[in-house]
Amino acid sequence: MNTIIINGTDDEAFSDAAKALREGMLVAFPTETVYGLGADALNPEAVNKIYEAKGRPSDNPLIVHIAEVSKLNELVAEIPEAATLLIEAFWPGPLTMVFKKSNLVPDIITAGLDTVAVRMPDSLIAQKLIREAGVPIAAPSANISGRPSPTTSKHVIEDLKGRIEYIIDGGSCQVGVESTVLDVTTDIPIILRPGGITLEMLEKVLGIVYTDPALEIKGNIKPRSPGMKYRHYSPKAEMFLISGVPGLVVKKINKLAKESSERGLRVGVLSSFENAHKYKAEVIVNAGSVKHADNIAAQLYDSLRTFDEKKVDIIYSEIFEEKGIGRAIMNRLRKASSGKIIEAKEEN
Ligand code: TXA
Ligand code: MG
User: Fold this and answer.
1) Residue 197 CB less than 6 A away from ligand 1
2) What is the mean pLDDT of the chain?
3) Is any atom of ligand 1 closer than 6 Å to the C-beta of 150?
4) Residue 36 Cα, ligand 1 centroid: separation in angstroms?
5) Fewest C-beta atoms under 10 Å: which of 30, 187, 198, 234?
6) From the CB of 97, is ligand 1 less than 6 Å away?
7) What are the residues whose beta carbons fall under 8 Å from the beta carbon of 23, sequence distance 6 or more?
8) Which residues neighbour 206 within 8 Å (Cβ) at sequence distance 6 or greater?
9) Would the CB of 140 count as within 6 Å of ligand 1?
């Protein structure tokens, strides 16, 4: 398939892409979080193409994107009061809410669940695409399943060129990690995936918010969000997170890097800006300063993709503070490393 790559500011080409989407084709587009792979959410055949192009397991439901709050009524059975408050506070923006679904929503969107995830993106290109297409847009991240999500059109091209009809280029995504997925069908809403709208921000509006325990504990608790059970966001190389007090972490990573190099492996290190000069390894990726977790989030997936580009065999990564957007960063790093954490201890 020939993939047409267009610039988001080219109005004529944009209209063609919106029309193609309305006619059942796939269009990748930027949002403020990551690039999405869009299809007409009300057309099951079009939605099926998303699963095929991404190689996505069919039991993993999709988020429906809208550009006007009034469209929400058609998609959901009811809008709980908490949701109304959160719409007021955070839409448009990186917050997805899970509602009881209406009959309009096809089963292929929800993977057979009786709930549907909906979000209103803040990106002007995304909003324009939804409006011009005139339909709600189903869109997962525009990557091959399991790979790091795309935050530039280059990432989308790497994964999906030749598999979809259109890619709309809109530069780099600001937030860089996906939206927060929040279940609002329970009395107290539950975070199913940490993301762009942080726990702290939600608590300010609602007072109390739960987090799905499956996100925090390593083990066999089944996550309430089907997508959270898969290995995800992963570079090709095996990845380990190193936890412990900062001085020990640097020492431990250098020790592991040396041992791996001696075994003939090409080693990558994911480092904070503060520590980057302290490492000895073939590839050191500067994730950004710990003083600006927002920046670390914004470039996280590009950092992970860099290891693929540089063809490393094994990656050792620092861990980052789990507050604010740091929760989303650590959630993605834990997934990318399949939860493999090594604790740095004092050695004597
Ligand atoms: O920022 C984002 O949310 C991006 C952009 C493109 O909007 N989209 C995105 O989609 O990250 P995706 O498909 O990569 O992740 C959607 C997540 C998955 O973990 C999925 O299991 C969960 O949302 N989800 C979707 N519908 C759900 C539902 N009804 N109940 C529980 N979880 C649901
Ligand atoms: Mg995804």
Assistant:
1) no
2) 96
3) no
4) 10
5) 187
6) no
7) none
8) 82, 85, 86, 188, 189
9) yes
Predicted confidence (pLDDT) per residue in 2-38, tens digit: 999 999 999 999 999 999 999 999 999 999 999 999 9
- Long-range CB pairs of 308-313 (<8 Å, 24+ gap) are 308/235, 308/236, 308/237, 310/266, 310/268, 310/282, 310/283, 311/266, 312/235, 312/237, 312/266, 312/267, 312/268, 312/282, 312/283, 313/237, 313/238, 313/260, 313/265, 313/266, 313/267
CA of residue 4 to ligand 1 center, whole Å? 26
Nearest ligand 1 atom to the CA of 110 is 29
| Residue 334 CA to its chain's centroid (Å) | 13
pTM over 0.90: yes
Q: For residue range 189-234, what is the model confidence (pLDDT) as tens digits?
A: 999 999 999 999 999 999 999 999 888 756 567 888 887 776 777 8
Domains of the chain: residue spans and CATH = 4-215 (3.90.870.10), 238-343 (3.40.50.11030)
